[in-house]
Amino acid sequence: PAVASFAVAGRLAAGQREWFAREIGALRDDLVTAVRAAVPDAILGGDPAPGGRLPANAHFTFPGCEGDSLLLLLDAQGIECSTGSACTAGVAQPSHVLLATGADPDLARGTLRFSLGHTSTEADVEAVARAIGPAVERARAAGLS
Predict the structure, then answer these.
(1) I need a labelling partner for 113 at 20 to 30 A (CA). Which of 17, 46, 56, 105 fits?
(2) Where in the sequence numbering do the catalytic residues fall?
(3) For the domain bounded by 19-141, which CATH number is listed?
(4) Is the pLDDT of residue 62 over 60?
């Protein structure tokens, strides 16, 4: 029964792959545009071309900020994000992946990953757009880095 259920789940997921890539990828692109507009010195991680990125995430480095501080400021506004990969959520250290690529440890500590999924909406992206600029300003002004 479990194997049959897994097969059905796989077929359902495969059937939605094009929709997911198109719709969630468009939300991701809107998120990238909004964050870059709100925080012009934010560094987008990965391939900047929309076609070269996975549709469901965007990773940014915010120079002069501590990712954990930003995480708390955004969480207070109901925005969920992470300072590392999904497999290291809850670990209070710079991403080992970023460090392995030669990233500066201070910059690596100022990173956030935003993930999107089938329940994500344009309203979610707009909430991030409203919150990220002031959160970065507060973190920098308070010396939370």
Answers:
(1) 17
(2) 87
(3) 3.90.1150.10
(4) yes
